[in-house]
Q: What sequence folds into this?
């Protein structure tokens, strides 16, 4: 805990005394530390692909100048590294946009069933290349909630992409939508979107930090799969903006369920 202590003489009712003020600035220090960590993380994440790109450019200008086969190979890797930087910058922009809007409550009604179908359709090529079967289970009656359609699309996309990335080839991913009549976490009724995979699961020790920016359970695997480490942080901020809840249930060796609860009507 950090305090600022100030003392001054005061005169009151003919008496002179000393007024001591204690100001707790722990939260300011923590916010400052978080900002420094964030800048350090972003710099590190950008520097790695940038260093690789510079190395390849120098090799192409020098030793590999006349080696066509090497040039082709290097260009593929350079494309991979540049894409990684692009994904990172895109996710950073999304995160900062969402953070800036967190106080503004979205009001448009969003048809969640239609949104889920559309995301599953868009991700079909990824689903096929991951050799994963996505099973979508929607209720007969449509469910709409007040929300920002683009942001809710991003939430579903991020969760489904993670299930495809970490769920494992040949496995199944279930995506469901249902109404929850009385959800205590929402202090009322709400819609529940659940994405369940049959992947390796997540050890309980990682749970509290999973939605932190750049937190990864397995950095090597995340990077290999094209992850930026920002997907769940973006999900958390969007869900907060909707006054919803994100719940993660996971069992090592069995799989994970990421549940998004969204209030049905403004509270
Ligand atoms: P990333 O871009 O690394 O996927 P995320 O913020 O989306 O970043 O996720 C953070 C970390 O949480 C991932 O690196 C991964 O270790 C873990 N994770 C996310 N989703 C799953 C899942 N469905 N199964 C297992 N681990 C997961």
A:
């Amino acid at each position: 805990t950090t305090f600022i202590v100030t003392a001054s003489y005061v005169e009151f009712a003919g008496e002179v005394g000393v007024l001591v003020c204690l100001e707790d600035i722990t939260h300011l220090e923590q916010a400052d530390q978080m900002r420094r960590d964030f800048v350090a993380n972003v710099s590190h994440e950008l520097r790695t692909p940038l260093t690789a790109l510079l190395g390849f450019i120098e090799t192409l200008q020098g030793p590999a100048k006349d080696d066509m086969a090497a040039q082709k190979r290097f260009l593929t890797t350079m494309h991979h590294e540049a894409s990684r930087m692009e994904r990172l910058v895109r996710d950073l922009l999304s995160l900062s946009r969402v953070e800036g809007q967190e106080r503004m409550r979205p009001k448009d009604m969003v048809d969640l069933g239609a949104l889920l179908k559309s995301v599953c359709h868009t991700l079909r090529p990824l689903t096929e290349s991951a050799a994963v079967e996505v099973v979508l289970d929607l209720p007969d009656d449509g469910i709409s909630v007040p929300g920002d359609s683009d942001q809710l699309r991003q939430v579903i996309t991020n969760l489904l992409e993670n299930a495809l990335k970490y769920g494992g080839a040949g496995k199944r991913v279930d995506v469901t939508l249902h109404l929850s009549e009385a959800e205590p976490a929402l202090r009322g009724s709400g819609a529940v979107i659940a994405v369940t995979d049959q992947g390796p699961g997540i050890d309980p020790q990682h749970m509290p930090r999973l939605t932190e920016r750049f937190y990864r359970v397995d950095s090597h695997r995340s990077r290999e799969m094209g992850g930026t480490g920002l997907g769940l942080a973006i999900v958390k901020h969007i869900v907060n903006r909707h006054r919803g809840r994100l719940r993660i249930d996971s069992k090592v060796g069995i799989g994970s369920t990421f549940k998004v609860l969204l209030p049905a009507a403004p509270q």
Observations:
- The beta strands are 3-12, 15-24, 109-111, 133-137, 144-146, 172-183, 188-197, 245-251, 255-263.
- Residues 158, 162-163, 166, 197, 199, 202, 210, 216-218, 222, 227-233, 256 surround adenosine-5'-diphosphate (CB under 6 Å).
- The first strand starts at residue 3 and ends at 12.
